[in-house]
Write a structure and sequence with these properties.
177 residues; single chain
Length: 177
């Protein structure tokens, strides 16, 4: 049975274990549509909040034309990297299941990500959903799944530190010139 977008959101948030256990979608089409719609709604709400609070959002069209398609496309790459980690930890299932997992676990970020100070809670909730979903969709134990995400978070931290280091390296040399 095909669930509507609102029904999926509600079930992911209220009954994540049963949602991921019963997820039987084929391919990535439904998850892609879900991601495209929810990220667009989140972007529009965030821009609206920015205008109401007099933030420096230069133009709504720039965000809609540049940011939104890039963020929707980037989900494929993020899911691919996550899938490599899942396989490294001996997870079962194809890439399409990892893409679905990542998109549906991102629901709290879509819903809360545009709200300052509250967006952090969406990220934490997303991590919890990733753990729950990975256990069900890729047949991993809880301990192995927690280790998987500890390694993923360490990998992200290392990439972030390298990014900061490169930024300061190039910014420092540009300011010295």
């Amino acid at each position: 049975m095909q669930k509507g977008m609102f029904q999926k959101c509600k079930e992911i948030i209220s009954k994540p274990s049963s949602f991921f256990k019963s997820l039987d979608e084929k391919g990535v089409k439904a998850a892609f549509y879900y991601s495209a719609v929810l990220s667009l709604v989140s972007l529009i709400l965030g821009l609206g909040y920015g205008f109401l609070t007099d933030s420096t959002y230069s133009t709504i069209w720039g965000y809609l034309v540049l940011y939104w398609p890039f963020s929707v496309a980037l989900n494929f790459l993020i899911a691919l990297i996550l899938h490599l980690f899942v396989k490294l930890f001996r997870g079962k299932g194809p890439y399409s299941k990892t893409y679905q997992l990542y998109i549906y676990a991102s629901t709290p970020s879509f819903l809360l990500g545009w709200i300052p100070y509250v967006s952090f809670l969406g990220s934490v909730w997303m991590l919890v959903l990733l753990v729950i979903g990975t256990m069900h969709m890729h047949k991993l134990s809880r301990a192995r799944t927690i280790w998987l995400y500890a390694v993923v978070l360490a990998f992200e931290l290392i990439l972030l530190l390298i990014g900061y280091w490169l930024t300061f390296l190039f910014l420092g040399s540009a300011l010295a010139a």
